[in-house]
Each structure stands twice: as C-alpha cells, then as structure tokens.
Amino acid sequence: xxxxxxxxxxxxxxxxxxxxxxxxxxxxxxxxxxxxxxxxxxxxxxxxxxxxxxxxxxxxxxxxxxxxxxxxxxxxxxxxxxxxxxxxxxxxxxxxxxxxxxxxxxxxxxxxxxxxxxxxxxxxxxxxxxxxxxxxxxxxxxxxxxxxxxxxxxxxxxxxxxxxxxxxx
Length: 169
Prior knowledge:
Layout: E1 2-7, H1 12-24, E2 30-38, H2 43-46, H3 51-75, E3 81-86, H4 89-100, E4 104-109, H5 114-130, E5 135-141, E6 161-167
Parallel strand pairs: 1-2, 1-4, 2-3, 4-5
Antiparallel strand pairs: 5-6
C-alpha cells in the first residue's frame, strides 16, 4: 500500500492538494496522512500560558486546519490519518514524512505574493533537503468550491486542478 503525506494548513491551496489526491487515488489503495505543522507560540506569549493550554491551543488550531482537507478525502471514500505537530514547518514536515515512511509528499501552492513566494521557497527548500520522499507541488490549483449553503459538494473533479509539478531530489 502506497503511503502519501499531504501537508495541510487550512488554505484553499492545501484543500486543492487534498482534492487532487482524492481524485487521482482509488479509495483504500493508499494510506493517506494529513499533516499540519503549527508554529510555536512566541516566547513572550508562551510564558503566560500553562503547557497544557499551549498544547490545547495547537491541537485546536491544527484540527481546524485539517478539517476541510479531511472532509474532502472522506467524501472521496478515503480514510485519512491526521497528525498535528509543532515546530518549523519545513523541517518538522520532513521529520514526520521520514518517520511515517511515506513514498510521496504533496503540498499546494498558488496565489502567493512576493513575500509569500519567498517564504514558500524557504519552506520547500528545507522540506526537500531533509525529506527522503519526493515532493509534489500542486500549482495553479483552483480552490475547492462550496455550495451557497457553505456545504462541500459530493465530488471533486480532477479537472479542478490545472497543473501539477513533481519535484524530485
């Protein structure tokens, strides 16, 4: 069984990456891992919070970030496993991928301004340097549509993705 890690941050881009995998992978054919990495709280803020409060905060934020991608995959018949970590995103994601033994890492990217592109390149560089698995960047991904009621549609067509680019080390 193929293991795939999907990096999610709650953005439309990570939702599109999840939809891309849902559309291109048969249910049950792959073990899908949704991974969210929360940045640590600033030291000034953290010193006023008890350790359990910090953990609860990161867990709640992480669960919020993976919710839509998890819903997309479940609608496609998949049963993803979710993981929430705290740390520097590129390095922490690579460590998680290596520990899970995944064969592919999928991230979404699009709609970034100059600063966002710089930050994404930094993240991607760290991820690719440290991860053993190849990284696929879903580029020009259109956000997964919602209905007027705010509900997610039943299916997610592969045509919603314009282009994907596999980056190999």
